[in-house]
Write a structure and sequence with these properties.
The complex is a heterodimer. Chain A is mainly α. Helix content of chain A is about 75%, strand content about 0%. Classes of the chains: A mainly alpha, B mainly alpha. At the A-B interface, helix 1, helix 2, helix 3, helix 5 and helix 6 of A face helix 2, helix 3 and helix 4 of B.
């Protein structure tokens, strides 16, 4: 079986989009620009899910993340957007400590990478798995993960009530 | 060159680690609460990418029915939605009281 053509090209294209989006999210002065960069990164990630033969998760990513959560973000940015905030300094006083901590974490990642990259067997990635992907996920969700699924619905209920209570003027 | 052109699980892990680091830098250094919340979304997405990549790797070992990583990714997305809703609700309440959205001006509990 031949491997799919141009897979490395698409991987690097999508990975580059994601990394550029991430960098723009944490460096932009205007929060709306950050949100748009995050949307680009999330859509690129949906493409990576498709490359990993996970079409259901890709659809959920686009509908829920890029469609739902980011609209919520943009709505709140519109509510609280201040011209003044953009003129102030954007990074807090502890930014040096923050960068140092993140650098330590990056060093840990690099150490793990150099020491542990041999333990993965370089097996051929299976392909053609997208058939019946959604059915299989639903069988797992409503079978083995039934309890976790119900708890997730409870979590969403608590989140709805919490958000309304938090954002309400007087209770 | 061969290792760069043959996309394996390791590539996805490196990308996911890079995104995680970007998110951590954003959370630790930015002042704007909205951007801090967006950085948290970046971190959760890095974890999700890792989970789906491992799900794919695991399918090569266990057969096409081993989709536990993808199910977990869906739970993480649910969590992210709940977190975003509550976090933005807190942000609106905070903005109403203090007229600012900078994290380092949240110091009521500090003495």
């Amino acid at each position: 079986m031949n491997p799919p053509v141009a897979t490395p090209f698409f991987f690097y294209l999508l990975a580059g989009t994601m990394l550029m989006g991430g960098i723009l999210v944490i460096t932009r002065r205007n929060a709306v620009h950050s949100a748009l960069a995050l949307i680009a990164a999330l859509l690129a990630q949906a493409g990576l899910y498709l490359m990993l033969y996970a079409p259901f998760v890709a659809g959920v990513q686009i509908i829920l993340y890029a469609g739902g959560i980011m609209v919520l973000f943009l709505f709140v940015i519109m509510l609280v957007n201040l011209e003044r905030v953009q003129k102030e300094r954007q990074f807090n006083k502890q930014w040096l400590v923050g960068i140092a901590a993140a650098g330590a974490l990056g060093g840990l990642f690099i150490t793990i990478y150099t020491k542990g990259k041999g333990i993965f067997l370089d097996r051929a990635m299976p392909s053609g798995l997208e058939a019946e992907n959604t059915q299989k996920i639903s069988v797992l969700l409503y079978g083995q993960y039934m309890f976790a699924f119900e708890i997730a619905s409870l979590l969403l209920l608590v989140a709805i009530i919490g958000a309304v209570v938090m954002a309400k003027k007087r209770i | 060159m061969e290792a760069l052109l043959h996309i394996s699980t390791l590539h996805y892990m490196v990308l996911s680690a890079a995104l995680f680091l970007l998110g951590v830098i954003g959370v630790l250094t930015r002042r704007n609460v909205v951007i801090v919340l967006m950085s948290i979304e970046l971190i959760l997405n890095a974890v999700n990418l890792n989970l789906v990549a491992f799900s794919h790797y695991w399918q090569g070992i266990q057969g096409p029915n081993a989709l536990h990583g993808q199910v977990f990714a869906i739970f993480v997305i649910t969590d992210a939605a709940a977190e975003a809703a509550v976090g933005l609700g807190i942000l609106i309440a905070f903005f109403r009281n203090k007229e600012t959205i900078n994290v380092d001006e949240v110091n009521l509990l500090k003495w």
